[in-house]
Amino acid sequence: MDPHPGRRTRGGGHWWFTSFAILRNKIAHGGVIAAEEYEFEGVHHVFHGELHLRRAIKKVVADAGHEDVLLGPFERIARRYEVVLSKSCSAMTSRMCVGCCEP
Predict the structure, then answer these.
(1) CA pair distance 69, 57, nearest whole angstrom
(2) Angstrom distance (rounded) from CA 74 to CA 61
């Protein structure tokens, strides 16, 4: 039986934070803590907290004009070097090109 009915009906982040706050209060006030209370939906609270913190930081950085932070690492690299690659590839002769340029 789920000790927290309604967990799935609230937003995941909101219920995680509520669960985290309950755990924090038990730690701070010396309450009894069951082993499963250190986790939320099978993942340790530390990892949930890190995920939410990273998302918040990325949002602030993106809102400050650095939208590429929201891309994955490969997309960031591709976007950064797209112009360089297109210039160097178009400068090659058609014999050297491997199909990425117009002949």
Answers:
(1) 10
(2) 19
Measured CA to CA, the distance from residue 60 to residue 69 in angstroms comes to: 10
Same domain, 15 and 32: yes
pTM of model > 0.70: no
Q: Exposed/middle/buried for 16, CB within 10 Å: 0-12, 13-18, 19+?
A: buried
Q: Give the tens place of pLDDT for each residue, 62-84.
A: 999 999 889 998 998 888 888 77
Higher pLDDT, 57 or 97: 57
**Phi and psi (nearest 5°) for 49?**
-60, -45
- Give the domain range for residue 77: 71-103
